[in-house]
């Protein structure tokens, strides 16, 4: 039976399959959709397809659960780093993504659980934007942390926030789509965040989303670096002074074979 070997890893509940690109076949987008299907596949928020490169230790190409390609994932990059470290014992891993090389440094290791501090580059802050949808007018901060984000500060997470996020992301303001973060400021160094990701929907956590939330909070004077970003799946720490660094866990959950 032809099959594809995979590793599944989770970073604060944001789960990824890490697979050699040699198995991607001629339609990686369709294959990723099948693999990520939570009922008929392995189940994941995305696939990190890995391949050799001369520019870093490894290249990782991210395909979201819906088959769309994304520039980078903060959590997915740490999941790749965990798999590489598990195989080679390396403690410093440079990963080429669609948003440049991300350097990951191992900070904690216990069995199949890892923690890395990753250099995530410089954010590009487009600024405040008001988006009108059928029933709402929503103001947020539009920025890129390698991929697109729209950060909305809220007092409380209102019921149905996922529906609002979906309709905001579909407006013409975001021709390439966007990830949406609803952000509650807890104090000068901590946030509570809910995430609605491009190509996935609601997720437990997001690395680039945590970076975007912290950068938007610091930029608008609500917080100071470092910022602890709590999400339903767990917490990560974001530091920002020029470059962003992101510290968080990644656990290898299982390995297996997907029958094609
Ligand atoms: N969960 C990720 C972001 C994954 C990519 C995103 N869905 C997009 O399309 O930009 C993270 O941890 O950063």
TrEMBL record:
<feature type="site" description="Could be important to modulate the pK values of the two catalytic cysteine residues">
    <location>
        <position position="149"/>
    </location>
</feature>
<keyword id="KW-0028">Amino-acid biosynthesis</keyword>
<feature type="binding site">
    <location>
        <begin position="74"/>
        <end position="75"/>
    </location>
    <ligand>
        <name>substrate</name>
    </ligand>
</feature>
<keyword id="KW-0963">Cytoplasm</keyword>
<feature type="binding site">
    <location>
        <position position="14"/>
    </location>
    <ligand>
        <name>substrate</name>
    </ligand>
</feature>
<feature type="binding site">
    <location>
        <position position="64"/>
    </location>
    <ligand>
        <name>substrate</name>
    </ligand>
</feature>
<comment type="function">
    <text>Catalyzes the stereoinversion of LL-2,6-diaminopimelate (L,L-DAP) to meso-diaminopimelate (meso-DAP), a precursor of L-lysine and an essential component of the bacterial peptidoglycan.</text>
</comment>
<keyword id="KW-0457">Lysine biosynthesis</keyword>
<comment type="pathway">
    <text>Amino-acid biosynthesis; L-lysine biosynthesis via DAP pathway; DL-2,6-diaminopimelate from LL-2,6-diaminopimelate: step 1/1.</text>
</comment>
<dbReference type="InterPro" id="IPR001653">
    <property type="entry name" value="DAP_epimerase_DapF"/>
</dbReference>
<feature type="binding site">
    <location>
        <begin position="197"/>
        <end position="198"/>
    </location>
    <ligand>
        <name>substrate</name>
    </ligand>
</feature>
<dbReference type="Pfam" id="PF01678">
    <property type="entry name" value="DAP_epimerase"/>
</dbReference>
<dbReference type="GO" id="GO:0005829">
    <property type="term" value="C:cytosol"/>
</dbReference>
<feature type="site" description="Could be important to modulate the pK values of the two catalytic cysteine residues">
    <location>
        <position position="197"/>
    </location>
</feature>
<comment type="similarity">
    <text>Belongs to the diaminopimelate epimerase family.</text>
</comment>
<dbReference type="GO" id="GO:0009089">
    <property type="term" value="P:lysine biosynthetic process via diaminopimelate"/>
</dbReference>
<feature type="binding site">
    <location>
        <position position="147"/>
    </location>
    <ligand>
        <name>substrate</name>
    </ligand>
</feature>
<protein>
    <recommendedName>
        <fullName>Diaminopimelate epimerase</fullName>
        <ecNumber>5.1.1.7</ecNumber>
    </recommendedName>
</protein>
<keyword id="KW-0413">Isomerase</keyword>
<dbReference type="GO" id="GO:0008837">
    <property type="term" value="F:diaminopimelate epimerase activity"/>
</dbReference>
<feature type="binding site">
    <location>
        <begin position="207"/>
        <end position="208"/>
    </location>
    <ligand>
        <name>substrate</name>
    </ligand>
</feature>
<comment type="subunit">
    <text>Homodimer.</text>
</comment>
<feature type="binding site">
    <location>
        <position position="179"/>
    </location>
    <ligand>
        <name>substrate</name>
    </ligand>
</feature>
């Amino acid at each position: 039976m032809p099959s594809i070997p995979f590793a599944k890893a989770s970073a604060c509940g944001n789960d990824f399959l890490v697979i050699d690109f040699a198995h991607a076949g001629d339609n990686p987008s369709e294959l990723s959709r099948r693999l990520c299907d939570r009922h008929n596949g392995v189940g994941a928020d995305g696939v990190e397809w890995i391949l050799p490169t001369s520019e870093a230790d490894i290249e990782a190409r991210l395909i979201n659960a819906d088959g769309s390609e994304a520039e980078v994932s903060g959590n997915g990059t740490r999941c790749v780093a965990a798999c590489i470290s598990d195989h080679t014992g390396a403690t410093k891993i440079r990963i080429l993504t669609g948003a440049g090389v991300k350097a990951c440094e191992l900070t904690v290791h216990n069995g199949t659980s890892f923690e890395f501090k990753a250099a995530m580059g410089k954010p590009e802050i487009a600024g405040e934007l008001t988006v009108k949808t059928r029933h709402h007018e929503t103001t947020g901060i539009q920025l890129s942390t390698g991929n697109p984000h729209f950060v909305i500060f809220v007092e409380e997470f209102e019921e149905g926030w996922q529906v609002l996020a979906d309709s905001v992301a579909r407006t013409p303001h975001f021709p390439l789509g966007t990830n949406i973060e609803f952000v509650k400021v807890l104090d000068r160094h901590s946030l509570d965040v809910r995430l609605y990701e491009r190509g996935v929907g609601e997720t437990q956590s997001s690395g680039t989303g945590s970076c975007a939330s912290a950068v938007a909070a610091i930029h608008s004077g609500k917080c100071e670096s470092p910022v602890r970003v709590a999400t339903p799946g767990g917490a990560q720490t974001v530091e920002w002074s020029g470059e962003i660094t992101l510290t968080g866990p990644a656990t290898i959950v299982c390995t297996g074979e997907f029958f094609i």
